């Protein structure tokens, strides 16, 4: 059979490629419709529960109960769904576990409960998990090959990301780039683009989803002084993304060490969030943090607002609440950029935009996708500065990130070549073992 197809490929290469193209227009389009519809349902529901939370302040006191309820659902029904985005990445890298369809309703309900009662979380993780589980279900339905299964899962990531943020080009690149640091496979380029584009069209045109856009303000002229200022800010963006990733992973370990029962762990996390709200006297750090982003582009925010959002989000996700990290990362980056504006004498909206994409870039190790997202959200006039911010933040975030199953395809420094082929989780474990070994010598 293989010889037969090789003969056809040699005689009719254009026809073979055309058939491949049509195949993935169909399959990627179906995944796009599913992910776009799921994202629309999620976004409309999220807007509703957020409005309800803001108008009903006492709902915050139910956060421990809500967290315990979600953890109970995952404990009884979730099975490997609790691995979240990392489960999907593992399967693309060759894992043999199934991605259950139940992941979609579980992460949808869990994220809505988190936001209804005031947890600080995002939405990208929900969209990616729904996209992955729906594309896995679709692949089983039509009995795809192992290779096509991987491509469909990438389509699920791209379709979910592109439709949840209204950025089809960034969604395409994110699905390809997030798999391995320093590597982008073009094998799924067309399928991922189709899924992301159709997903975005489905969400916006079919289901009426609207996405927020912000004005970047005037773009300063290129100069050596400006370049040096952006380098400095971008280094801080990268270090901040590293702080967020490391703190979130550490809190997950600490929570699990202190509370063996997942329901008690989430309840305790909810109580800590309530305590912090009253200790700091503000609810600004609850939910997605969209009002803080808006203020970063149109006015002023507290110089330490980025630290507040880091703390609230890390405590929420570390305790086992459901939701993503990306929108809080947008908030952290935008508020940090705003805080740096007076210090380095640059426009607050301009720096907020750079921080918006650069902190996200450092935490996900996806510089090209984040650069493209910047152009889609803010326009192309500041493209040079956006690119600088993304690649510098990417470098200074080191081998850290929010996705522990992300592989290190190309290390960020030649002396770290021994990390090649490992995951971020493996890298951290190797570091712990080396420190333990040195301390014992």
Descriptive keywords:
single chain, 441 residues, mainly alpha, two-stranded parallel sheet, globular
Chain-wise SSE layout:
Blueprint: H1 2-11, H2 13-55, H3 63-78, H4 85-92, H5 103-116, H6 124-142, H7 146-165, H8 168-177, E1 180-181, H9 189-206, H10 224-258, H11 262-280, H12 290-298, H13 305-318, H14 326-344, H15 348-364, H16 367-378, H17 383-396, E2 407-408, H18 424-440
Parallel strand pairs: 1-2
Helix pairs in contact: 1-2, 2-5, 2-6, 2-7, 2-9, 3-5, 3-11, 5-6, 6-7, 7-8, 7-9, 8-9, 8-16, 10-13, 10-14, 10-15, 10-17, 11-13, 12-14, 12-15, 13-14, 14-15, 15-16, 15-17, 16-17
Q: What does this entry look like structurally?
A:
The chain is an all-alpha fold and 441 residues long. Helix content is 71%, strand content 1%. It has 18 helices and two strands. A two-stranded parallel sheet has the order 1-2.
